[in-house]
Amino acid sequence: MITRDQLNEKLLKAQYAVRGPIVIRAQELETQGRKIIYCNIGNPQALKQKPLTYIRQVLSLLEYPELLERPEVLAQYPKDLVDRARMILKKHPHGTGAYSQSVGIPFIRQAAAEFITKRDGIEAKKENIILTDGASKGVQAVLLSLLKKENDGFMIPIPQYPLYSASIDLYGGKQIGYFLDEANGWQLSEAALVQSYESAKKSGINPVALVVINPGNPTGAVLSKENVQMIIGFAKKRNIAILADEVYQENVYASGKKFHSFAKTFSELNEKDLTLFSVHSVSKGFLGECGHRGGYLELRNVPNDVLAEFVKMQSISLCSNISGQISTYLMVAPPQPGDESYEQYVKERDGILNGLKRKAEILAEGVNKIEGMSLDVPQGAMYAFVKFELPIPKGVDPQGMSETERLAFEEERDTAYCMSLLEETDICVVPGSGFGQLPHTLHFRTTFLPLQEEIETLVAQLKKFHEAYTAALAVQ
Ligand SMILES: Cc1ncc(COP(=O)(O)O)c(C=O)c1O
């Protein structure tokens, strides 16, 4: 039998906190009959968010096209969606069970390009769109293709979504963390970018690209236009590509805040040289179709021979899954005014987005009432990165520790806190150390996806738990 030590060391090194030991324990508790509130992962439909009806109606007709021959069945579907299903089958006659072109079904790539043009008022080309199995595969394609030498690295935010750290480890690259500015609503700071870039260079690491997640996971921040401009200027000066993770672009709640895409800002700055990769997904926004694994990668300012290599890479795994591609199509080309399905689409979309906004507020309001905890109301995405403090037990002297010892002590503390929270309250969150955090601070990440009443319960239980936990530590 194969043993663990025979496995690729890069795989052994990779860590993925969002589904780490705390979640494994939560699943064990669940099998023992406990009712866990899973706040560890942005998986909306697992937390009772309903799928948008129009998506499922079209998919149902395409998965079982015989339905299109049954008038009594079609009478239950809005006419525009039946027409859409027929149109899709005409353009992709083999249906959902056959491979498509490697980079995706052409008319869907065209629709994605038109979506970008409509969103940003800029030119977008179908040839530069690759349909992927969720945004994750688009991100991984970029990471893999840019890691040329052993010392090549990616600048990634701290805190970050661990897809980045884990995939970079998996592919044998270097992580170059840059701190997000918590005191400034988690925006990027030029000083932090410069500091991280320079120190990487000094230690012989070659930054090849800068990853930006906007709106942020785990921070819930929405970057200002000036911030996006600053980031482009920074990357331009050093000629490093930008990988913009824009999967939460529909999830902006704070009034006065707006999503500013990198593509649009590139165009406004007339940037024609610097390379931009951006990803989008059906998993987030208001669709929450995580299980359908749909998304796209757009490449800007890349020569044709580079594009050809990305096409080749995609062809190695044949193509992304077809129902994911169709879900992506339905995301970029939703029902329009005048369509029979439009009213219900708008009602469902707005219901989900308004609910998320409300839940973000309830969470922040409740957390800020807990002594030793703080949180700005998340402006976007689906997460809150809650800062908390714990008393130092008697006899422990963090100041006397080496930096490595102190970091290990802190990591152990936020993990123990989250594990204890789970054991005591059935609430499953992820320790801040799984995403990275400023040394000597403690955080945990929670989603605000559960139902509103569950968020209210969560806040109340969190308060009780935190008070008891800190009181117990104080007397140790
Ligand atoms: C910032 C970010 N990027 C990418 C992904 C992956 O999305 P997908 O399901 O499209 O692969 C996630 C998932 O949570 C995410 O938070």
Quick overview of this protein structure:
It contains 16 helices and 14 strands.
Descriptive overview:
The strands form three sheets. An eight-stranded mixed beta sheet has the order 2-9-8-7-6-3-4-5, with helices on both faces. The protein contains 16 helices and 14 strands. The longest helix has 27 residues, at 342-368. It is globular. The protein is of the alpha/beta class. The chain folds into two domains: 4-49 and 346-474, Aspartate Aminotransferase, domain 1 (Alpha-Beta Complex); 95-332, Type I PLP-dependent aspartate aminotransferase-like (Major domain) (Aspartate Aminotransferase, domain 2), CATH 3.40.640.10. The protein binds pyridoxal-5'-phosphate (PLP).
Number of strands: 14
CATH architecture verdict of the largest domain? 3-Layer(aba) Sandwich
Evaluate the radius of gyration.
Answer: 23 Å
Shape: globular
Class by SSE composition: alpha/beta
- The percentage helix is 40-55%
How much of the sequence lies in strands comes to 5-15%
Secondary-structure element order, N to C: HHEHHHHEHEHEEHEHEHEEHHHEEHEEEH
Number of domains: 2
Strand order of the largest sheet: 2-9-8-7-6-3-4-5
Average pLDDT: 94
- Major sheet size, sense and barrel closure: 8 strands, mixed
Could you state the CATH homologous superfamily of the largest domain?
Type I PLP-dependent aspartate aminotransferase-like (Major domain)
Bound small molecules, deduplicated: pyridoxal-5'-phosphate
DSSP helical segment count: 16
CATH topology of the largest domain: Aspartate Aminotransferase, domain 2
Distance between the amino and carboxyl termini? 46 Å
CATH class label of the largest domain: Alpha Beta
Question: Unreliable stretches, pLDDT < 50, 5 or more residues?
Answer: none
